[in-house]
Amino acid sequence: xxxxxxxxxxxxxxxxxxxxxxxxxxxxxxxxxxxxxxxxxxxxxxxxxxxxxxxxxxxxxxxxxxxxxxxxxxxxxxxxxxxxxxxxxxxxxxxxxxxxxxxxxxxxxxxxxxxxxxxxxxxxxxxxxxxxxxxxxxxxxxxxxxxxxxxxxxxxxxxxxxxxxxxxxxxxxxxxxxxxxxxxxxxxxxxxxxxxxxxxxxxxxxxxxxxxxxxxxxxxxxxxxxxxxxxxxxxxxxxxxxxxxxxxxxxxxxxxxxxxxxxxxxxxxxxxxxxxxxxxxxxxxxxxxxxxxxxxxxxxxxxxxxxxxxxxxxxxxxxxxxxxxxxxxxxxxxxxxxxxxxxxxxxxxxxxxxxxxxxxxxxxxxxxxxxxxxxxxxxxxxxxxxxxxxxxxxxxxxxxxxxxxxxxxxxxxxxxxxxxxxxxxxxxxxxxxxxxxxxxxxxxxxxxxxxxxxxxxxxxxxxxxxxxxxxxxxxxxxxxxxxxxxxxxxxxxxxxxxxxxxxxxxxxxxxxxxxxxxxxxxxxxxxxxxxxxxxxxxxxxxxxxxxxxxxxxxxxxxxxxxxxxxxxxxxxxxxxxxxxxxxxxxxxxxxxxxxxxxxxxxxxxxxxxxxxxxxxxxxxxxxxxxxxxxxxxxxxxxxxxxxxxxxxxxxx
Length: 652
Hints:
By secondary structure, this protein is α+β, with helices and mostly antiparallel strands. It folds into 5 domains: 25-136, Serine Threonine Protein Phosphatase 5, Tetratricopeptide repeat; 155-251, Alpha Horseshoe (Serine Threonine Protein Phosphatase 5, Tetratricopeptide repeat), CATH 1.25.40; 270-336, Serine Threonine Protein Phosphatase 5, Tetratricopeptide repeat, CATH 1.25.40; 347-429, Tetratricopeptide repeat domain (Serine Threonine Protein Phosphatase 5, Tetratricopeptide repeat, Alpha Horseshoe); 433-650, Porin, CATH 2.40.160. The chain has helices spanning 2-17, 24-35, 39-52, 57-69, 73-86, 91-103, 107-118, 125-151, 157-169, 173-186, 192-203, 207-218, 223-232, 240-249, 254-266, 270-283, 288-300, 304-315, 320-330, 341-344, 350-360, 363-376, 381-393, 397-407, 413-429; strands at 433-439, 442-444, 449-460, 466-477, 495-504, 510-521, 527-541, 547-559, 565-579, 582-593, 602-611, 620-631, 637-650. Strands 1, 2, 3, 4, 5, 6, 7, 8, 9, 10, 11, 12 and 13 form a 13-stranded antiparallel beta sheet that branches. Strand 12 (620-631) and strand 13 (637-650) form a beta hairpin. Helix 12 crosses helix 14. The longest helix has 27 residues, at 125-151. The chain starts with a helix and ends with a strand.
């Protein structure tokens, strides 16, 4: 008994000293959101769990798989990268990262991981070997082709740059560095190549050379290249020898030389600073700031005659502020200029003005203020998100997508989720080509037969108002003989229909369309012309979680295959959603035509249910309908039970 008590006390002590899982609560909610297919909510919760437990590879892995579900392959790649760094022995995670890296154009990283795994004695070695060869072989062939092209006289920027790019992807860093430098020497204004050169030198442990290249790229030139270079530079201000090494590499960099000159001045190394300002005055005659500073230094030392030509250059220039500073030194009258109200009064906060302009409907003005706010604070993700919305309102979706792409990388989960959703929606709606697929197999007790419906359609979305498309439809059944002469034409055409058509942009829920093609019967083998088109509309009101709902679809159609007849279809449902995966409703279907064909003039009504599940794809539903129908032309009444499965998706 005493021994038992001792063990209980020891166990309690150990348990008391075991720290609780800090990520338990957000993880529990995240997995619940996954089961409900609420991916944006799950992502936000996984992100919170990562913050609470950043060294847990399993959380990074689950967040990565969730990102894949919403098509965010780049974000998924980074989560698998983090999981791989935490647990390098997990080959499954490494393979996931490698395939995502390959799909997101990071071939070099993918190649390295596949190379490592193929050398291990494990189940993934064969797959890794094949993937490695698929990457490595084209790189080797490309390097050989570009070397041959350069050897026969292709000494130009493109040849050197392409060769360097392929060499870097194949980890041939010495070859890559050689040709990046040659490419940059041919086009020195292409500062992004300096970033590439610095990155390769860094991989070669040529740290000083890498810093020189990146420092040169970070000052002046292309803004994007400067931003990329700053991300790779050490997290400190550069030293004088690093500036000097960068100028040795890039002697024509005016901004870099000016910054070094002012740094030398602050360090009381005036002679060296004057030397740098002298080079600027000689090589960049439009640099009035350098001319002013050198003139002041010479004038203060009593060399008035040497300073005067520099002052004359500034006085003749277009910078009135610098000119007045020179006049003050020379004791000349100041040249006054009228200041606007905006110059005399403190400028209001740009974000506040942007918000006011948006609320007042002045979107163009809001965009200008947001641009100012972004310049003031380039790291404000809220401004980036609002820039996206402003551009979206102004129908500049291409630029809006760029800002939403930046906003979705915010550490603020609200901004990131909103940016991610907006980016995904715009990306989907602005793709030039979009392919949609839907299938709807059903079983009818009335006909004791299975029927199948489906369509694969690819649209060309270049024009906003009219979109051409090509389509393959299937409308058929198992061709079982029907009893009592009942015709199944209302449910089946027993054919594949290949067609090309156009459709209009949706307006108030309705869209017009027309297509021409051929119907190929799989029963008779006949090939017949098929023309169809009309106006289709959909209207619905669906609760977010639970509540009453209504949806209706109506089509006014011309179909040549049915005697060149015109039809009106309506399908409506109204009911209640007790849970997001269950819909209980009463439905009604109406079909009428212009020629009065017996099968085409019916009304059906009855109860139904639609069900989904966490283990089914998000857009898949199983339905059951109990229907009572009436033929208008004959007065005949019938009953039918229809069981169906609906599934649709859009290719990414």
